[in-house]
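Morning!

This is the sequence you dropped in the shared folder:
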Amino acid sequence: MPRFLLALLFASVIWFAPRAVEAQRQFAVQVESGTGLSIAGAGAQALLRRSPAFLELGMLTWLAHDDVVWLGGGLRLEVEDRASVGGVVRSGFFARADIVELRPFIGLAAYLAPYTLVGPEVGVLVAFEIADFLALTTRIVVDAYLAGSDLVQDTVLVMTNATLGLEIPL
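The structure's back. Tokens below.
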């Protein structure tokens, strides 16, 4: 399963990169840091704790002439407790009002090393334009890890995280 997700992430990058020039795609890069709350287990055995702090290095792209839908992805690195490496692929919509941009999205998140976790993601990013070349971002995200070697049998890990970061349009 993790190899499939890694292959999907690489395939999406390879598929969109050549078309970016053809369709006049716009790009932006992001760097974010975040944490939140995690709950894992079932019933009375559920455990609530703070999620490990993480960094995310991401990219998103959209068509210049139709800037409503975007596609993005990122490399996620847990930097607290044990170090973990993962990725996320997302798609969503832009909603703009002056210098504030709202971006609801859905996605697929996975941690691939040293253990695996895989599941859907839903959230919203708010970008505040500071200058033409820089935006301050905050993201609220809910990940529901349904499968992976880091889960106790018959349990789900749900993380609700918030991030703060910067975005640079290219």
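Headline: The chain has a mean pLDDT of 86.

More detail when I'm at my desk.
O.
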